[in-house]
TrEMBL record:
PANTHER family: LEUCINE-RICH REPEAT (LRR) FAMILY PROTEIN. Residues 1-27 form the signal peptide. Pfam families: LRR_1, LRR_8. The keyword Repeat applies. It comes from the Eukaryota. The lineage of its organism: Eukaryota, Viridiplantae, Streptophyta, Embryophyta, Tracheophyta. One of its GO terms (cellular component) is membrane. InterPro entries: Leu-rich_rpt, LRR_dom_sf, RLP29. It is found in: Membrane. It comes from Solanum lycopersicum. Keywords: Leucine-rich repeat, Membrane, Repeat, Signal. This is Leucine-rich repeat-containing N-terminal plant-type domain-containing protein. The gene is LOC101267314.
Length: 411
């Protein structure tokens, strides 16, 4: 409580001092922009402004845009028109990333109409994202990640037509994703992860330049939307999404796909494996029942990591996995696979596969004795199956008992 009282006292003292000094500054910077900088600093708890933070260098005895020393770090300005003698410098970039600042973002931020970049990431801002942020029509990068912003994302954010990078991840934002996001035609990166968003994902195919989309760790439900064809990264893990995943089959430039911990069903089928640029696939912890792996013989796949664990996949293990030349990490555990492990797997474990998880399935048959000599450096788990393993092979530890293996359904 004493700290809070002191903070309020010093804040009001600081406000009075700033507004006393600022009229005497012979500034080439727009006075309205200076007032916004003053407002930003006065809404920050002074006890959170450390000696080495950029905000500590904001000295309103000097001109923000004219200083060349250690004052007003984190600020970039426009260069005024030399022909127009009345022209003033304007603030075009604010970067206070990682300063550990505690406080609120002033609604007057919307008066910085020449602002191109606003980066307040990795601080402790709280409260809502001001509606006035929609006045920043020249903004290309808005980064508010790793703060404590709450409330909904600004409904009219779609008016920021020049926005290329929008990152509000790791906050406490809630409500639905504004449908106006569809108007952000210049957007290349959209990160809404680790918030409390609900509702459905709006159709994204109109964001034709979007390369990366991350909405993991929210409470989003419904089916997959239509994605732009240029997209490379899709991260939707830890939500309530359902239905089939066929919308991703036509995304030829897709590199990373993470749909883990949702409620998707149906098949992980050939359409996924025909995407030659796809490197990392994680569709674990869902309700898939079918697993179809196309053979790669004439085209080179970039697939490196495949994780399908904790689904309801049945049938035999897919032999065609061995035709993927760059594949090194495979997790097929916690499913309903049965039959023997394909003999083709053993040669891959000797030469290229570095991780193979098959635990908690219904697999049977013998594991070759020579695997004991070649498994050094290989990670994984074959446990909780009905395999006959060579003595000392740690990958095989913890097999089911004979009675469990002959007692019917094992899962």
């Amino acid at each position: 409580m004493a700290r809070l009282v002191n903070s309020i006292f010093f804040t009001f003292l600081y406000i009075s001092l700033i507004y006393t000094l600022s009229p005497f500054v012979n500034a080439t910077t727009s006075q309205s922009d200076i007032q916004v900088l003053v407002a930003i600093k006065t809404l920050i708890d002074p006890f959170s402004i450390t000696a080495d933070s950029f905000l500590n260098s904001w000295d309103f005895n000097v001109d923000p845009c004219e200083t060349t020393g250690a004052s007003f770090l984190g600020i970039l300005c426009t260069v005024p028109d030399q022909v127009d003698t009345n022209a003033t410098s304007r603030i075009m970039e604010i970067d206070l990333e990682g300063d550990g600042l505690e406080g609120f973002l002033t609604s007057s931020i919307g008066n910085l109409t020449e602002l191109v970049t606003l980066n307040l990431g990795r601080n402790k801002f709280r409260g809502p994202v001001p509606e006035s942020i929609t006045n920043l029509r020249k903004l290309t990068s808005l980064q508010l990640y790793e703060n404590f912003f709450s409330g909904s994302l600004v409904d009219d954010i779609g008016v920021l037509s020049k926005l290329e990078n929008l990152d509000v991840s790791n906050n406490r934002l809630s409500g639905s994703i504004p449908s106006s996001i569809m108007s952000l035609r210049s957007l290349t990166r959209l990160d809404l992860s680790n918030n409390e968003f609900t509702g459905k994902i709006p159709q994204l195919n109109g964001l034709w330049q979007l390369s990366s989309f991350d909405i993991s760790n929210n409470q989003i439900y419904g089916n997959l939307p239509q994605f732009p064809l240029k997209i490379k990264t899709i991260s939707l893990s830890h939500n309530l999404l359902s239905g089939h995943i066929t919308p991703v089959h036509k995304l030829r430039h897709l590199n990373t796909l993470d749909l883990s911990d949702n409620r998707f069903s149906g098949g992980i089928n050939k359409g996924i494996f025909r995407l030659t640029e796809l490197s990392h696939v994680n569709v674990s912890v869902n309700r898939f029942t079918v697993f179809e792996v196309v053979e790669f013989s004439d085209k080179k796949s970039q697939l490196h990591t495949l994780d399908v664990h904790a689904n309801r996949l049945h049938g035999h293990l897919p032999v065609n996995l061995v035709t993927y030349p760059n594949l090194t990490e495979i997790n097929l555990g916690h499913n309903l696979f049965s039959g023997e492990i394909p003999s083709e797997y053993w040669s891959r474990l000797r030469f290229s596969w570095r991780s193979l998880n098959l635990e908690y399935n219904n697999l049977e048959g013998s594991v070759p004795r020579e695997l004991n000599r070649t498994s050094e450096g290989v990670q994984g788990n074959f446990g909780h199956n009905c395999l006959i393993c060579p003595k000392g092979l740690q990958l095989c530890n913890g097999q089911r008992t004979a009675s469990e293996c002959h007692g019917g359904d094992l899962n």
